[in-house]
Amino acid sequence: MLYPIPAVIAVVVHNNRILLVRRANPPDAGYWGFPGGKINTGESIESAAVRELFEETGIQSEALRVITAVDAFDRDDNHTLQEHFVLVAVLCSWVSGHAVAADDALEVGWFALEDINETSLCLSKDVVKVARMGVTLASDAAFKVL
Fold it and tell me: pTM for the whole thing?
């Protein structure tokens, strides 16, 4: 029996751009999405987001808050479910570093929200929805004073 696997995705908005990576591994190998990965036993959601972001991109960050959670399903060629991930999206603030593709990332890039809305990028499910939520929270003046 398969059980959902808890994981995180780090949503970084910096200079009005959103950080995305092109994934090297399933689920969604070859697709653009947020840096992230499995939560280690005993690791907080926030710590996992900061760690995964650094491992995949070299970006140092601070976790600000959980945004939402989304499902990611890894299916084989016959559409049989192999793994089910529950991805907790964490808004992170950029602290330092230049984004480089490392660990599970084939490529890394900073994208304006309007560029993410275009169909020219092969995006993982829910990337646009989560990106919009991240941009809204990151620009919310009331949130910044918390």
Answer: 0.92
pLDDT category at 140 given cuts 50, 70, 90 is: confident
Q: What is the DSSP string of the chain?
A: ----EEEEEEEEEETTEEEEEEESSSSSTT-EE--EEEPPTT--HHHHHHHHHHHHH--EEEEEEEEEEEEEEEE-TT--EEEEEEEEEEEEEEEE------TTEEEEEEE-HHHHHSTTS-BPTTHHHHHHHHHHHHH-HHHHT-
* CATH class assigned to 5-129: alpha beta
Q: Where are the domains of the chain?
A: 5-129
Give the pLDDT band (50/70/90) at residue 145: very low
Q: Is the pLDDT of residue 146 over 50?
A: no
